[in-house]
């Protein structure tokens, strides 16, 4: 299974080329003084691997969260271990995921999912009653009517992780969001309506660290603090609130996962989150078997192999010297180079030409 918008990106590129086919690169030969006009060749076709590499190198990663609190008599950064990754999912991919989540919700309403997979409690007060869909294991948030304590219920069966969610997991590992030593084998979908929330808590150690949460549909805040105060239904206050952009991935590890509590106050509008976690092996459900297609996932290298570099050759035509009109669509090679812009990312940067029609792309030259 692959992402649907990969082909759409190529279609957008072709449409852009067709809108402005008249651009040329002009250069003057230093030896003959002749005007050399290079016809722009069509955009090189990128392989799926090359497209993935470009997107991977454009991911923005924030790892410098700081919030100092006194813990056991010492001042510590309680957000140590938090990471926020953006640019992991395109708009088309997010739509596909959201549509699939809503289809799962409809399946749950029709009774087509296992009993403990889909839960939709009645809303008896503001902030209570968000829909949850669990895969891989059944996690019990509180003592249930059968007297089961909070934690993974090893004797309860839920549906396995869907194929689309496995695609997400593979990307999270390949794109250096989660380490290959901590590939998720369970996930929980939260479907929020306006006013729904998640109360203050620290995630159970039935799940190993790190784990992550992906946000969809709308931005909201997640609040952290060693002491979180409840001011009312869905109204919490803590030491720091961190915005979670649409499509972002928040990784919780270290102090950010184990020392400080977190919560999601009442959301202002509809929201979907998917939390991916790896179970402690001693807490796995009875009869649990690892997913074969989630084994052996390796992160992408930051340097592409030289044999996979992209080289675009541009045939040149020679013309006699002639005046160049300023109002034409002719541009000099020098001006094209000066117009290039750079985007910088934490720790790693990827330089992508502002005008991709006129610049040679070398994907292996980092």
UniProtKB/TrEMBL annotation:
It comes from the Eukaryota. It holds the Pfam family 2OG-FeII_Oxy_2. InterPro entries: AlkB-like, AlkB-like_sf, ALKBH9B/ALKBH10B-like, Oxoglu/Fe-dep_dioxygenase_dom. GO terms for biological process: mRNA catabolic process. GO terms for molecular function: demethylase activity; mRNA binding. Residues 1-20, 310-366 are annotated as: Disordered. Residues 324-334, 353-366 have a biased composition (Basic and acidic residues). Residues 183-280 form the Fe2OG dioxygenase domain. Residues 7-18 have a biased composition (Acidic residues). PANTHER family: FE2OG DIOXYGENASE DOMAIN-CONTAINING PROTEIN, HYDROXYPROLINE-RICH GLYCOPROTEIN FAMILY PROTEIN-RELATED. Belongs to the alkB family. This is Uncharacterized protein MANES_01G145400. It comes from Rhizophora mucronata.
